[in-house]
Write a structure and sequence with these properties.
The protein is an alpha+beta fold. It has five domains: about 120 residues, Rossmann fold (3-Layer(aba) Sandwich); about 160 residues, Topoisomerase I, domain 2; about 140 residues, Topoisomerase I, domain 3; about 130 residues, Topoisomerase I, domain 4 (Orthogonal Bundle); about 120 residues, no CATH class. The strands form nine sheets. Strands 9-10-15-14-11-16 form a six-stranded antiparallel barrel. A four-stranded parallel beta sheet has the order 2-1-7-8, sandwiched between helices. A four-stranded antiparallel beta sheet has the order 19-20-21-22, with no helix packed on it. α5 runs parallel beside α17 and α9 packs across α14. It is globular. The N terminus and C terminus are likely disordered.
């Protein structure tokens, strides 16, 4: 299947990719003997206005050429008719394989002319190697993608109209989307059902004798002679212990020291990139994938031309090519020194289920292109994401970090009751930063709060007496499980085997677009509509909403891709019980009217205002409709307190006359504060006033003359939900 000799002047080698950016980058590598064209994604798909699947004849799909791709396909067919070789260089995954197959079928090309080329980075070495070893279309990958597309069409096309009839028009249900919604709804119900339990924390301020100016805290842990942590459930118990400890003597009972070695995280996969970009950059999954696509397809680097800066961004693998490992190790040795370089390259073998070993992790195509070197050629957001990917890759090959962790137990002997209590303090000292000199992985919010935080400890010796400078009892309450963020929901979906990482961005966007979830202080909260849809689907389609069932279906799709099973039996096994459930739901599912109370009264008739959904999204309307037709746009909470009254929150509003967006206090008309520009959560560094956006990346204070850049964590973060 090698291409013919290039010496013929009239020979045409046609190369088809998905995007113009990718075409430019590959064209620079291949040179004038190749004509590079972009298909702009899929050229054919299932029809929009009908099911397009013959469920009685082996689930045969009826594909049609997309209306906006007819001229593109016409051009490709004409060029293909003149070509000696046709190279299909679409992305190296199931979707890319399916795009190539659809091109072949829609254009009517001879299969003997088709050369499928696959590369995971757009560099000269990778592209030339791929063109030296072309192959045919992999129908196992195509069939896995077809099976997924047909499954999703069956669920969406059959369930969505049912929701239109039973709830309201414009709703949708998806095979994976609906399970993701279930996770968000069930977490919210856990939060609603949570009953806080009171407890008290008693902290002692201790110091070495003669060093009262250098105290350190220790937290009451247990009563000596009794196993388990001491539970102090109310104020009376706390005050009683404090009274017992009046005049107590304190001494160091034990000191435990151990060296803690911390290994760097592996290079990014699709899901870990989405999670970390959310934690550190506040980028939505949708925004992250869009930026990563740009970095992969190629960025113009001045005289160097268009260069692909990262490897393919849809991958489950943490594998790194040997050449990239060697380059990273050489870079670390030259820049950081031998002490920061492990004796051997670090190999990460743990991969997500279904990962293909041929794929690589997401990494820079060359670590020699440092973030500083390429920054001037990138947008602000491209530069931030590239830095994240670059640092993660380099750090993954650096030495472990080492620190000494110390746990000190302090015995407090009560003179009044002859009891003894044990206080505990923890501290650590970083001995060698290793990879942490460059990068440290972000963390998600955990339930509750750590009781024993690490503190700076003075040098202590066993049996050393200490001075207590005071006891501080503090009332606390147990905390509910945290609501999902984009990062924690993506992590949960991957852990449970629901969907594929490449689909997570679309899932999250759809949940927001359909008004099933909203964001509050960057947490995902289900709407009343989302809850209603979730419970209806759980009642009438338990298998669709079953997490284990969805994960098993994902495993079946992986087996189709591996050639271990056929796609038609998988679809048949799913469809028969699904069709039966549909028929029962059409008859028995109740009609539901979703109206979420707002706590406000209609200014025209006095009846309660509720949140409704219409053709153009959610809005507030009078519950007395149709007798009263009062409506107004739904205000979006920014999570920022009103700087005037300090009680209300600034919410996004839209003026009725001109339709312009502005921000005002939620306590209007009691507080009439407004500002035309988007407020920022960071305060003015000069007067602590409210900062608002000024231009794309600027900020200015509404109280003083301060002007400066948007704080890094808010830069370009114009829409957490939409990217």
């Amino acid at each position: 299947m090698a291409p013919r000799a290039r010496s013929k002047d009239k020979e045409l080698n046609l190369v088809v990719v998905e995007s113009p950016a990718k075409a430019r980058t590959i064209g620079r590598i291949l040179g004038p003997h190749y004509t590079i064209k972009a298909s702009l994604g899929h050229v054919r798909d299932l029809p929009d206005k009908e099911l397009g699947i013959d469920t009685d004849k082996g689930f045969a799909p009826r594909y049609h050429v997309l209306g906006n791709k007819r001229s593109t396909l016409k051009e490709l067919k004409a060029l293909g008719g003149q070509a000696s070789n046709i190279y299909l260089a679409t992305d190296p995954d199931r979707e890319g394989e399916a795009i190539s197959w659809h091109l072949l079928k829609a254009a009517g090309w001879e299969e003997g002319l088709i050369r499928r080329v696959v590369f995971h980075e757009i560099t000269r070495q990778a592209v030339e190697e791929a063109f030296r070893h072309p192959r045919g279309i992999d129908m196992q990958l195509v069939n896995a993608q077809q099976a997924r597309r047909i499954l999703d069409r069956l669920v969406g096309y059959k369930l969505s109209p049912l929701l239109w009839r039973k709830v309201q028009k414009g709703l949708s249900a998806g095979r994976v989307q609906s399970v993701a919604l279930r996770l968000v709804v069930e977490r919210e119900e856990e939060v609603d059902a949570f009953v806080p339990q009171e407890y008290w924390r008693i902290e002692a301020r201790l110091a070495k004798e003669g060093q009262k100016e250098k105290p350190f805290p220790a937290v009451l842990h247990s009563e000596k002679g009794r196993r388990g942590r001491l539970k102090v459930s109310d104020e009376a118990a706390a005050r009683g212990i404090v009274q017992e400890l009046e005049g107590a003597s304190y001494r160091v009972a034990s000191i435990q020291k151990r060296e803690v070695r911390q290994t760097p995280a592996p290079p990014f996969t699709t899901s870990t990139l989405q999670q970390e970009a959310w934690r550190k950059l506040r980028f939505s999954a949708h925004k992250t994938m869009g930026l990563a696509q740009q970095l992969y397809e190629g960025i113009a680097l001045g005289s160097e031309g268009s260069v692909g800066l990262i490897t393919y961004m849809r991958t489950d693998s943490t594998r790194v090519a040997p050449s990239a490992l060697h380059e990273a190790r050489d870079f670390i040795r030259d820049v950081y020194g031998e002490e920061y370089l492990p004796t051997k390259a670090r190999i990460f073998t743990k991969r997500a289920r279904g990962a293909q070993e041929a794929h690589e992790a997401i990494r820079p195509t060359s670590v020699l292109r440092t973030p500083r070197d390429v920054k001037k050629h990138l947008s602000a957001d491209q530069a931030r994401l590239y830095r994240l990917i670059w640092e993660r890759m380099v750090a993954s090959q650096m030495a472990v970090a080492r620190e000494d962790a110390t746990t000190v137990e302090v015995e407090a002997g009560c003179r009044k009751t002859q009891k003894a209590y044990l206080f505990r303090a923890k501290g650590s000292v970083l001995k060698f930063p290793g990879f942490r000199i460059l990068y440290l992985e972000g963390r998600d919010e955990a339930a509750g709060e750590r009781e024993d935080k690490e503190v700076a400890l003075p040098p202590l010796a066993r049996e050393e007496p200490l001075v207590c400078l005071g006891l501080d009892p503090e009332q606390r309450f147990t905390q509910p499980p945290p609501r999902y963020t984009e990062a924690t929901l993506i992590r949960t979906l991957e852990e449970k085997g629901i969907g594929r990482p490449s689909t997570y961005a679309t899932i999250l966007s759809t949940l927001r677009e359909r008004d099933y979830v909203t964001s509050s202080q960057r947490r995902l909260v289900p709407t009343a509509l989302g809850r209603a849809v979730c419970h209806l689907l759980m009642d009438f389609f338990p298998s669709i909403m079953d997490i284990d069932f969805t994960a098993r279906m994902e495993g079946n799709l992986d087996r189709i891709a591996q050639g271990a099973t056929q796609w038609v039996p998988v679809l048949s096994e799913f469809y028969q019980p699904f069709q039966k459930a549909l028929e029962e739901a059409a008859e028995k599912m109740p009609r539901v009217r979703v109206e979420e109370p707002t706590g406000e009264e209609c200014p025209e008739c006095g009846k309660p205002l509720v949140i409704r959904r219409g053709r153009y999204g959610s809005f507030m309307g009078c519950s007395g409709f149709p007798a009263c037709r009062y409506t107004r746009p739904l205000a979006k909470d920014t999570g920022i307190k009103c700087p005037r009254c300090g009680e209300g929150m600034l919410v996004e509003r839209r003026s009725r006359k001109r339709g312009r967006v502005f921000y005002g206090c939620s306590r209007y008309p009691d507080c009439d504060f407004t500002v035309a520009r988007k407020p920022l959560s960071q305060r003015c560094p000069e007067c602590d006033g409210l900062l608002v956006r000024s231009g794309a990346n600027g900020a200015q204070c509404i109280n003083c003359a301060y002007r400066g850049p948007v704080p890094e964590e808010e830069a370009q973060d114009t829409a957490i939900g939409g990217g």
